[in-house]
Amino acid sequence: ASAGGRVIIQTRFPTHHAVQALLSGNPDHFYQQELEARHLLNYPPMCHLAELSVTGTTRELVEEAAKQWAMDLGQIGADQESFTVLGPVQAMSTRLRHHHQRMLVKATERRTLSRRVHESVRVLERKYQKGRIRFAIDIDPVETGQG
User: Fold this and answer.
1) Banded pLDDT at 81 (limits 50, 70, 90)
2) Domain segments of the chain: what residues?
3) How far apart are CA 96 and CA 87, in angstroms?
4) What is the pLDDT of residues 92-115, one digit of tens each?
5) DSSP character for 57?
């Protein structure tokens, strides 16, 4: 049902496939282009993601814990092309006086991803329990980078 009206699109990327699909009224074009890009980058649905975050009140300790986690996961996945760690990077914190680091881990098998991430965090939780560092894991997040 068409109600009529006008849509104004403001973009820096007028040739982007999402804008072009919208303008042409062809959602299949968007779908095919997006799927191709995700395939090349090995992003979902071609893989599974884990969003990992490290939070605490001491910046140096948060950075150290995040780097250690990334290094541990990198060593675990070094023997597999299908296991990739991206990050860590500093993230925005929604709480005052808190520091936050995030990273993404990509893997082809969800079970392997979940098992390896959870195994690795157990060691870190023991090591950093007195430093008041919190570790969070989100397997196949709907959104990433949310504070």
Assistant:
1) low
2) 9-41, 48-139
3) 23
4) 766 677 899 999 999 999 999 999
5) S
Options 3.30.70.600, 3.30.43.10, 2.30.40.10, 3.90.950.10; CATH of 48-139: 3.30.70.600
37 burial (CB, 10 Å; 0-12 / 13-18 / 19+) is: exposed
Burial class (CB in 10 A: 0-12, 13-18, 19+), 107: buried
Two tokens at 144?
Answer: 């990433």
Q: If DSSP codes are grouped into helix, strand and coil, which group holds residue 63?
A: helix
Which residue type sits at 67?
A: K
Phi, psi of 95 (to 5 degrees): -110, 140
Question: Rounded to whole angstroms, how far apart are CA atoms 84 and 57?
Answer: 28
Residue 146 CB neighbour total at 10 angstroms: 13
